[in-house]
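agent: user wants the structure for Glycine cleavage system H protein from Maribacter arcticus. delegating to structure tool.
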Amino acid sequence: MNIPAELKYTKDHEWVKIDGDIATVGITDFAQGELGDIVYVEVDTLDETLDREAIFGTVEAVKTVSDLFSPLSGEIVEFNESLEDEPENVNSDPYGAGWMVKIKFSDASELDDLLSDAAYKEIIGG
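agent: tool returned. relaying tokens verbatim.
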């Protein structure tokens, strides 16, 4: 199970990489493994400002559809458009080519509520 130490995590199995005031967000290796083969990623909130835990999109696997929750309040400034043609990148490279959105976050204090790699491992029993 790959859980990079330099990232932050949510209880909803998303990872967050902070770079200045931009947060890159995707789903964890654990989440993609639970979902199975991902066939579609939909994000229709580009350029919208969302509250933390608002739904920013969905990920569709062969047998299920799951909502994607914003880990931070802010504006969705970028969607990984390569996922439109290659949604399998979420399975093969969840922390790299499989990233989903970038959020310009508006409340840095929310970063304190994100989980460390160790705390996330406890949630998933790792």
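agent: one observation worth passing along. Residues 8-107 form a domain with the OB fold (Dihydrolipoamide Acetyltransferase, E2P) fold (CATH 2.40.50.100).
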